[in-house]
């Protein structure tokens, strides 16, 4: 810096020296000095485009957006073919919320320079959020007609196709990119993401590892996503190691830390106390810095007024959370509750539109940073803010850590504590969290809804309940259609004991999407003396096929410590009762909660020996098992399962919590 200052003294009319000094100030995080230097450069050379770009960037970072826009427009006027100016203008317009103008500038940047990869990603994200992915697909296809070797255009097209769920086509695009540039780490990363979405876990893991070999621009995300694949394969120790590697690279990455915590939920060798300690560490790192700056809430303390309730989730789409929350939103009493939906995802489908229609106010917020979303929630005047994600993907816990609402609660998406002290409550029931059992594993106070808090909606076109298959087949079929990361050696040992005692019985396992999963399962069962002949391995099934497969199942077996949720509900609706082992943590009591709600406590076991004995006794009473099967839908049709009743109980709980806050 001293040398440049000396050069300026020697040649004060040279704009380049001021420009270089401005860059140094910018790199040092000194915006005032950078702005002054860039403007001095432009005084001496008014058509200095690089100085205009540098000035615009500093002004944007300093949140002086209108001035930044003026600087980029001047750059475009001076050099109409400057792709960087259009890209930077697009990002600034996006920050101002002028999305249509932002899209136009991203497109112009890509027409001038298709290799601007970040512009591809911004354009895809923006158009996905506006449900206009067809436009961006057409845009990239037009680029490829004239420039078939444009690697980044293949990448952009693949990303847009992936957002639409057209995974086969997306994979072809990424493969083309790799053929054109075999050492492109980001192409391997994107290919791995699409393969992961498709359930091809072996290939996904191989491509994430290939991306790491070539050092991708998103190395942190690569380690995190590799951890996700390993977790889905049931390789929990490897997954945890991958997340810890990500955290070594970026200790302040909350998403990687959340992924680590979520995976620990599956670990059978961790106690509830150990899990909670890990969640408290998350709060120490990510919540503690915000606590001194928590602002007082000025919400009207009228205890009986209409409440503003906000629900925050990245899962208002084809997802179990949507399955559970939709009937609640549909039954809210709008005279008592004004509903806000904050959707943290770009994917929009029929589920999204249906859920949005049940809200009074809807905001797709994935493009807002934590500070911006915090400010928006405060501006909306939310009284009770409800997290539906916990530490699952696309959570906004760092917004909750800023305490934007006077009352905050977590529900549905995560079976356990978030660890945040800003999260006032966790909504549950007395079966999942019996009084006196799980409070010590929570930073939140527990709000127990009567009769259970989850509603059930029958899937359209759901098959009828058939007679118990074993009555005619001559053999009993047990099953677990849960994700395979819930199946650990302890679970396999118990299930193996059942199969050894009933050599004619079979065990059906779902979600076997590739060879590595099949090999892992066969190996686990071989270790407990069960051969492949007693196993029925099914691929991932969806829709009608998934429901219809229950007509081949006699008894479902619940994994532990992480019980089934939506899977158990579907099983019960199809007449298939579930044997479950209750533990001392909410995630290992979901099965007990559901079996209690249907009035079948005899299927709830207190030990592994009880679990085995329960299965053997049921196998000896097929007529009794069939009677249970035929009664199941009636059991799930009573008041305890009625969505209107559950919503009323929830609103009563909200009102009680609000009255308490108002009285403080």
Give a written overview of the molecule.
With 664 residues, the chain is of the alpha/beta class. Among the domains are: 1-113, Alpha Horseshoe (Serine Threonine Protein Phosphatase 5, Tetratricopeptide repeat), CATH 1.25.40; 305-455 and 644-663, 3-Layer(aba) Sandwich (Rossmann fold), CATH 3.40.50; 470-641, 3-Layer(aba) Sandwich (Rossmann fold), CATH 3.40.50. 54% of the residues lie in helices and 8% in strands. The protein has 30 helices and 13 strands. Strands 3-2-1-4-5-6-7 form a seven-stranded parallel β-sheet, covered by helices on one side. A six-stranded parallel β-sheet has the order 10-9-8-11-12-13. Helix 12 packs antiparallel against helix 13 (201-213), helix 14 (219-232) packs antiparallel against helix 15 (236-249) and helix 23 packs parallel to helix 28. The chain is globular, with a radius of gyration of 28 Å. The model has no long low-confidence stretch (mean pLDDT 93).
């Amino acid at each position: 810096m001293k040398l440049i200052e000396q050069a300026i003294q020697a040649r004060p009319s040279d704009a380049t020296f001021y420009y270089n000094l401005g860059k140094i100030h910018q790199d040092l995080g000194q915006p005032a000095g950078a702005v002054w230097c860039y403007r001095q450069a432009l005084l001496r050379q008014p058509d200095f485009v690089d100085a205009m770009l540098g000035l615009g960037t500093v002004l944007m970072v300093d949140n002086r957006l209108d001035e930044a826009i003026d600087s980029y427009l001047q750059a475009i006027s001076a050099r109409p073919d400057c792709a960087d100016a259009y890209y930077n203008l697009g990002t600034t317009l996006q920050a101002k919320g002028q999305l249509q103008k932002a899209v136009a500038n991203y497109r112009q940047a890509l027409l001038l320079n298709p290799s601007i990869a970040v512009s591809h990603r911004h354009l895809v994200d923006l158009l996905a959020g506006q449900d206009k992915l067809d436009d961006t697909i057409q845009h990239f296809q037009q680029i490829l007609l004239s420039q078939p070797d444009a690697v980044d255009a293949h990448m952009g097209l693949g990303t847009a196709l992936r957002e639409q769920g057209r995974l086969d086509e997306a994979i072809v695009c990424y493969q083309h990119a790799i053929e054109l540039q075999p050492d492109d780490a980001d192409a391997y990363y994107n290919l791995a993401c699409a393969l992961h979405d498709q359930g091809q876990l072996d290939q996904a893991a191989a491509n994430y590892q290939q991306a790491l070999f070539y050092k991708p621009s998103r190395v942190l995300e690569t380690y995190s996503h590799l951890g996700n694949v390993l977790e889905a394969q049931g390789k929990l120790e490897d997954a945890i190691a991958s997340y810890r590697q990500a955290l070594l690279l970026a200790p302040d990455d909350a998403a990687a830390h959340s992924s680590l915590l979520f995976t620990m939920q599956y670990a059978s060798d961790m106690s509830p106390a150990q899990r909670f300690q890990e969640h408290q560490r998350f709060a120490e790192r990510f919540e503690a810095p915000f606590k001194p700056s928590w602002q007082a809430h000025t919400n009207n303390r009228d205890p009986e007024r209409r409440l503003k309730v906000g629900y925050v989730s990245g899962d208002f789409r084809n997802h179990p959370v949507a399955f559970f929350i939709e009937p609640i939103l549909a039954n809210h009493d709008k005279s008592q509750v004004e509903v806000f939906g904050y959707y943290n995802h770009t994917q929009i489908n029929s589920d999204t539109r249906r859920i949005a229609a049940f809200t009074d106010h809807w905001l797709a917020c994935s493009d807002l940073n934590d500070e911006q979303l915090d400010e928006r929630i405060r501006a909306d005047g939310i009284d009770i803010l409800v997290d539906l994600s916990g530490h699952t993907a696309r959570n906004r816990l760092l917004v909750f850590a800023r305490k934007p609402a006077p009352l905050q609660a977590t529900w549905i998406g995560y079976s356990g504590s978030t660890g945040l002290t800003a999260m006032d409550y966790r909504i549950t029931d007395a079966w999942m969290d019996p009084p006196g059992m799980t409070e010590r594993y929570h930073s939140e106070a527990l709000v127990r809804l009567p009769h259970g808090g989850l509603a059930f909606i029958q899937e359209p076109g759901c098959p009828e309940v058939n007679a118990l298959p074993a009555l005619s087949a001559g053999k009993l079929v047990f099953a677990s259609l849960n994700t395979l990361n819930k199946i650990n050696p302890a679970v396999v040992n118990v299930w193996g004991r059942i199969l050894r005692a009933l050599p004619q019985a079979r065990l059906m396992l779902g979600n076997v999407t590739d060879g590595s999963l099949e090999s892992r399962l066969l190996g686990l069962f071989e270790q407990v003396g069960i051969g492949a002949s007693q196993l029925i391995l099914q691929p991932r099934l969806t829709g009608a096929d998934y429901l219809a497969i229950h007509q081949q199942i006699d008894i479902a077996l619940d994994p532990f410590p992480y019980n089934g949720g939506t899977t158990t509900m579907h099983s019960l609706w199809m007449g298939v009762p579930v044997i479950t082992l209750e533990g001392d943590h909410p995630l290992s009591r979901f099965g007990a909660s559901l079996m209690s709600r249907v009035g079948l406590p005899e299927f709830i076991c207190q030990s592994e020996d009880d679990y085995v004995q329960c299965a053997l006794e049921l196998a000896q009473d097929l007529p009794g098992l069939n009677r249970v099967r035929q009664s199941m839908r009636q059991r799930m049709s009573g008041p305890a399962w009625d969505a209107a009743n559950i919503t009323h109980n929830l609103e009563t709980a909200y009102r009680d919590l609000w009255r308490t806050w108002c009285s403080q």
